[in-house]
Amino acid sequence: MMRKLMICRAVLPPRPSGRARLALTVMLVLLTGGNAVAKTLNFDNAPAGMPPDGWTLTKTGQGQPKWTIEADATAPSQPNVLKQSGRATFPVAIKSDTSIGDGFVEVKFKAIAGSEDRAAGIIWRAKDADNYYVVRANALEDNVVLYRTIKGVRTSLEIVGRKGGYGVSAPVASAQWHALRCDFAGNRFKVTYDGKPLFEVEDATITDAGMIGLWTKADSVTLFDDLTYGEVK
């Protein structure tokens, strides 16, 4: 009897890591929640120096953002990237033809310059340039923080399982490509940075489907590529 028990225990699979469990959870949501159609934009079919079609290129607050397609030899998918090089409170680029309630948005980014800020963010459930969720990575602060923006006012949100604090510390090296992602369903948001799950947030302020987009802050000069998004129905 003891020998049989030892054999049974030997063939048990190892307990998956936290990252593997999150991947399995997301896969189950996609498989059981209905059809999920993902789309990737790499900005390679637009002429350099021009703004991309199908976007509302604007800002939250004041200033003059500048969103343009540019050639970049380091782009994850060459030849082009979307570059923000203007200055505004929060430069915002919203994909006008999107409307996603539950799904995900992910982008690759490279923070180039900025003395006041050096940030890159992704937006979801946007009603307009003044109402949306955003998670951003900051190369000057080396952290990742999730906010809600309502009527132009930005508020950082608490992390599930932790009281207080401000986002999560993470190395955000300038002049290097990184990946930022958020999976959102109901009032639960899961943030992944460079392939590593960072934290989760719960908030029910914005529940309706909305647009996805990109975001920077102040004088940030930031490159974006391979914007991928999808909806789970």
TrEMBL record:
Please give the superkingdom of this protein's source.
Bacteria
Q: Which Gene3D superfamilies match?
A: Exo-inulinase, domain 1
- The protein here is known as 3-keto-disaccharide hydrolase domain-containing protein
